[in-house]
């Protein structure tokens, strides 16, 4: 059984020394971390303040850029926002030879790619027949109100879309949303999600809002905010309510579950089991603000999430598959902090082979 150590989930800032004294490590054999010793931390605290040199030893740089969670359970990185410059972390990965996805967010009508998009867009509804897509970069596209649109967000990207009814949707990396150009004249508002998204639904009691995912899952809302994590490759899907009230139904004919704020329903795609738990809902929606929250998450699952966030391929050796971690990752900073920390740890080797980051 792993030994657990609590640590405040906070961004590293001017109080780095205080946080360093609280860093913890989880090992499968429950051994105490020999690195977390007084003198070791004093030495590390001094080194952490020194600026990272990109050309220093390859293996250490690789370890610091992605895999600090393997040892510390805490990661800090720069946000990857499509409209901003490539972050320091990503630039360093590129320097090391890690293949970074350069796929763009695209809008489709059927199988036809209509345009590439930047960081955000909204659908403007002037009249029932006058519908247009307006992007943050100033592009404008006239749309037929009856058309079904498909928004595809690749690994390494996030995207915000405002639908024609005013509903706001934040799409996480490797996610897809299908939705009509307009809800005008419809008795319900229905969209389909693959992957992860946070919704702030515009209230309309006469026209309920539905989100469909795989495995016949459906969420019905009137006006509320919630997060859905339903990546098809994951064995469990999670729906977490932040505000309002939603009705969750795993398939037609089955009794729906009504969620209140700070409740989460998990659905096991293999067994069909469904459970409701009390959670801190804000933690599960934190990704849209540049954070990744994880609790008792296995290293392979954590590697999947990091792969999506940064658009890189990460593989985990068999011997590390039972490692699990809890913590909070900021995309924003800490490459120098992480690499210096990894320099003092052992048990995990990070190498790049043919553009793939291996954790061994």
TrEMBL record:
Q: Name one Pfam family in it.
A: FecR
Q: From the record, give the transmembrane residue ranges.
A: 60-81
- Please indicate which superkingdom the organism of origin belongs to: Bacteria
- Transmembrane helix is among the record's keywords: yes
Describe the location of the Protein FecR C-terminal domain by residue ranges: 292-355
Q: Where is the signal peptide?
A: none
- InterPro entries, from UniProt? FecR, FecR_C, Ferrdict_sens_TM
Q: What region holds the FecR protein domain?
A: 152-244
Gene Ontology molecular function: any one: sigma factor antagonist activity
Record's protein name: DUF4974 domain-containing protein
């Amino acid at each position: 059984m792993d030994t657990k150590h609590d640590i405040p989930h906070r961004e590293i800032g001017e109080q780095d020394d205080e946080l360093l004294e609280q860093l913890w490590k989880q090992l499968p054999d429950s051994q105490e971390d020999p690195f977390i010793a007084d003198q070791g931390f004093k030495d590390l605290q001094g080194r952490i303040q020194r600026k990272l040199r990109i050309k220093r030893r390859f293996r250490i740089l690789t370890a610091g850029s992605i895999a600090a969670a393997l040892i510390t359970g805490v990661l800090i990185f720069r946000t990857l926002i499509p409209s901003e410059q490539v972050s320091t972390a990503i630039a360093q990965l590129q320097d090391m030879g890690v293949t970074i996805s350069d796929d763009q967010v695209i809008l489709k009508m059927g199988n036809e790619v209509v345009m590439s998009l930047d960081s955000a867009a909204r659908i403007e509804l002037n009249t029932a027949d006058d519908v247009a897509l307006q992007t943050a970069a100033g592009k404008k596209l006239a749309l037929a109100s009856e058309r079904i649109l498909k928004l595809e967000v690749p690994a390494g990207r996030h995207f915000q879309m405002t639908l024609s009814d005013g509903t706001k949707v934040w799409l996480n990396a490797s996610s897809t949303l299908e939705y009509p150009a307009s809800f005008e004249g419809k008795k319900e508002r229905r969209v389909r999600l693959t992957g992860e998204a946070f919704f702030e639904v515009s209230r309309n009691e006469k026209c309920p809002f539905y989100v469909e995912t795989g495995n016949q899952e459906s969420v019905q809302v009137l006006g509320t905010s919630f997060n859905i994590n339903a990546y098809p490759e994951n064995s469990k899907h999670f729906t977490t309510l932040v505000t309002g009230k939603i009705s969750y139904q795993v398939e037609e004919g089955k009794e729906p579950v009504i969620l209140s704020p700070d409740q989460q329903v998990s659905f096991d795609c293999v067994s069909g089991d469904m459970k409701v738990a009390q959670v801190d809902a804000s933690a599960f929606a934190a990704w849209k603000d540049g954070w990744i929250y994880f609790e008792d998450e296995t290293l392979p699952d954590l590697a999947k999430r990091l792969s999506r966030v940064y658009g890189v391929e990460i593989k985990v050796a068999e011997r590390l598959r039972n490692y699990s971690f809890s913590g909070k990752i900021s995309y924003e900073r800490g490459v120098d902090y992480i690499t210096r920390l990894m320099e003092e740890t052992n048990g995990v080797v990070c190498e790049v082979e043919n553009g793939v980051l291996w954790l061994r």
